[in-house]
Design a protein that fits this description.
Beta-Lactamase; 5 domains; six-stranded antiparallel beta sheet; 28 helices
């Protein structure tokens, strides 16, 4: 037989022991001898279960100050009260220093304390950094002073009660008013916790009473309803529902059923008659038709949600069970309202094992009529098993059937679908949105939330997502009604809004390609380019722009590997244009394109390069989008200017045309590449003839007088273009007349000489190979 051995402390434990040894040494040094032993014992109990890293990373003085402050807070506490202190310790005020704000609580030990306190702090936007929570048996005198403390787990004498000592560190709060608000909020929460804990047995007794009276009134209800409701109430009492509050109402006489609160009937968090769960039971005028119908009908109970979140245990909307109260003769005499929280078992167990849920599941399955062993029967059962549990408790069988069948018809279809249930008190809507899983992300969730909030003029109070093995993601969203209530909503139109919002960029591209190329070609291109475009391109370009780029990319891949386009987007400024180059293999260096564009009278503002990789392509195609500004207004009929620019740039890029200032005439004078080549040839002839002016001066002169440059090009075409010549000089006369008139308006003598020399050369030319 092996003898048990004592484990030697490891390095971390030795470090903790050393730390606590130094802290307790401070106690012995600073506390009077007769009280030092008790405080030293308290310090070790206080830090007994603190994570080692938190101890190791905290200065000794701060550990000493925190423990001693907790001891001082615990020394006196009147029975049945909570001591709460919120402060940011400073040496000059508290005798010790900490960067964070400290919350100190001394209270009778009871369930839900830590959960409730941290939830309240989080609700106020505070981050909880550390919780120290020893529970010690303490004996106090009548004044509330400590007389003895005992180690946890030991047999304490009669009168000693376990007490909860909480030290919580949160992010700094310097404003005294804010600290006071936190303290008051925590006191209110602790009051609720105490009330719920003190009254839970009494609430359970009321539930048992209701179960008995409900079962006895079976003759007033449809067959099986009373027994099922009684079974549900008994199931609640088997630790499946955390009782937090209850109150009773009586039914008043009148043409319409109405409810009146029975004063003083409140228990737990509803002890105060002024606390409301929802207005529908306090103000009869706000009772919805469904609730009035519930009061009239023999349905024994209704499960719903409260308007307020629980301050106890979990910070979620309170679960509410409305139970009809019957007299001994089975007549409805009132309502019993119970609030609390369903426990984990209620959410994890099969609905077929939970009373009232099992009845709903059976009713839906029976109405659907599917073979339970067949595909549809199994699929429907899975839908009901995985249906949001809170919804399953609240929804009525007929509505559950319709939604479940709708989900069944949706199974594995890649489309968005919306299902909405309205709260019977018309305080909120519960929306189930199914979205193709590959489209679902946080951005889409926010978009759906915005659309639902806009449609119902409310705010989203909670959402839950489910991403399982299905190809569909499920988003469950609760939208609370605004001040004006829930408006009527066209669900089909709302669903269509969500469909459009959920369509990704690739979906829009697919549709645009089909529209532009027909279904067969469009689907082929959509498959080829589904993943071709980078994120940056998709964020800044529409699907319509991508369709155009795809056409250019296909052209570049099939041809020379190069394509260019000049255009002006609708949203562009007055002088803003876009030049887009498509180039196979690698991007064109900005140092190469910048001079070409500037020589063509364009000033580059920005460049956005994107690598596009179509499926099956050997190389990426670079889409280089240049934002440029033009000195020439963009003409209303820009087709010719666009074509002339693209032809000229391609000629320059391929080396078929020189890259110099003459190219400004393409956009400024509306010339073709051939026109510019002719004018450049005349300039070179003048240079050979020792003309007095340099080429850049000649370029500037022609650019300064684009109308005359255009007339000179027309004169040349009239003389030599075979398509225009008619064998006489008759068509030259009006052009020469226009040139003379334009030259008369030239005031600069050098410009006049240069322009007249070009006219002379054209008139002196006998033949050309330009055509």
């Amino acid at each position: 037989m092996l003898e048990p051995t004592t484990l030697e402390p490891g390095p971390l434990q030795r470090r903790i022991d050393d730390t606590l040894g130094r802290v307790t040494a401070l106690v012995r040094e600073r506390i009077e001898r007769e009280g030092a032993a008790t405080v030293e014992w308290f310090v070790r109990q206080f830090y007994a279960n603190v994570p080692p890293a938190d101890l190791a990373n905290t200065p000794d003085e701060q550990l000493y100050g925190a423990a001693l402050a907790m001891w001082q807070a615990a020394r006196r506490r009147p029975a049945g009260t909570a001591t709460v202190r919120v402060y940011t310790p400073r040496v000059e005020q508290a005798g010790w220093h900490a960067q964070r704000t400290i919350v100190e609580i001394v209270n009778d030990d009871m369930p839900f304390l830590v959960d409730s306190v941290t939830a309240e702090l989080n609700r106020r936007g505070l981050t909880v950094h550390l919780v120290i929570h020893p529970v010690l048996p303490i004996l106090r005198n009548a004044a509330g002073d400590i007389t003895s403390l005992f180690e946890p787990g030991t047999d304490a004498p009669p009168g000693a009660r376990p007490e909860s000592l909480m030290h919580v560190q949160v992010n700094p709060v310097g404003d005294p008013a804010a600290q006071e608000a936190i303290r008051a909020g925590l006191e209110a929460v602790l009051t609720d916790v105490r009330a719920a804990v003190e009254d839970w047995r009494t609430i359970g007794s009321r539930i048992a009473e209701s179960a008995t009276l409900t079962a006895a009134a079976r003759s007033a209800m449809p067959e099986g309803e009373a027994e099922e409701a009684a079974a549900f109430l008994a199931w609640m009492d088997e630790d499946n529902f955390t009782y937090l509050g209850a109150r009773d109402y009586r039914v008043t006489d009148g043409d319409e059923p109405d409810l009146e609160l029975i004063a003083g009937s409140g228990l737990g968090v509803l002890r105060d008659d002024g606390v409301t769960v929802f207005d529908g039971l306090r103000h009869s005028a706000s009772l919805s038709a469904e609730v009035r119908d519930f009061l009239r009908q023999p349905r024994p109970l209704l499960v719903t949600k409260a308007n307020r979140d629980s301050t106890v245990h979990r910070p979620v909307a309170l679960d509410v069970v409305l139970i009809k109260r019957f007299d001994a003769d089975g007549r409805i005499v009132g309502e019993r309202l119970v609030v609390g929280l369903f426990t984990a078992t209620a959410y994890n167990a099969s609905p077929r094992d939970i009373p009232i849920l099992r009845r709903k599941v059976a009713q839906v399955a029976a109405r659907a009529g599917f073979d339970p062993l067949g595909h549809d029967g199994k699929a429907l059962l899975n839908i009901l098993e995985t249906y949001p549990r809170d919804e399953l408790f609240q929804i009525q069988p007929a509505e559950l059937h319709d939604i479940a069948i709708g989900i069944l018809h949706l199974q594995e279809r890649q489309r968005l679908a919306l299902f909405v249930r309205k709260d019977p008190f018309e305080r909120f809507i519960s929306a189930l949105v199914f979205v193709p899983r590959d489209r679902f992300d946080t951005d889409l969730r926010r978009t759906i939330q915005t659309i639902l909030e806009d449609a119902y003029r409310g705010r989203c109070s909670a959402f839950y997502t489910q991403l399982g093995d299905s190809r569909l993601a499920r988003l469950h969203m609760i939208v609370q009604a605004g001040p004006d209530g829930l408006p009527p909503v066209d669900l089909a139109a709302l669903e269509q809004r969500l469909v459009l919002a959920s369509r990704g960029w690739a979906d829009h591209l697919r549709s645009a390609l089909i529209d532009a190329n027909g279904e067969e070609r469009g689907l082929a291109l959509a498959a080829r380019y589904a993943d071709a475009f980078p994120v940056g391109y998709r964020d800044s370009h529409s699907a319509a722009q991508a369709v155009f780029d795809i056409g250019r990319i296909e052209q570049a891949l099939a041809g020379s590997g190069f394509s260019i386009n000049l255009g002006r987007p609708l949203e562009a400024g007055e002088d803003e244009l876009h030049v887009t180059i498509h180039h196979v293999g690698r991007p064109i260096a900005l140092s190469d394109t910048l001079p070409m564009l500037e020589h063509m009278d364009l000033r580059v503002i920005t460049e956005e390069p994107f690598a596009v990789t179509p499926r099956g392509a050997k190389h990426s195609v670079w889409v280089q989008d240049f934002t440029v500004r033009s000195a020439t207004p963009w003409p209303a009929d820009a087709a010719d200017a666009k074509r002339h620019f693209q032809d000229a740039f391609a000629a320059v890029w391929s080396g078929r045309m020189e890259d110099d200032g003459f190219n400004r005439l393409i956009l400024r004078a509306g010339l073709t590449a051939r026109d510019v080549v002719v004018l450049r040839a005349y300039a070179k002839f003048l240079k050979q003839a020792r003309f007095a002016y340099a080429q850049d001066t000649v370029e500037a002169t022609l650019a300064s007088h684009p109308e005359i440059a255009r007339l000179i090009a027309r004169l040349f075409a009239a003389r030599f273009d075979p398509k225009l010549r008619q064998g006489t000089g008759a068509d030259e006369a009006p052009i020469l007349e226009a040139i003379d008139s334009a030259l008369d308006a030239v005031t600069n003598l050098d410009d006049d000489r240069i322009l007249r020399r070009f006219v002379t050369l054209v008139r002196a030319t006998l033949r050309t190979n330009a055509y």
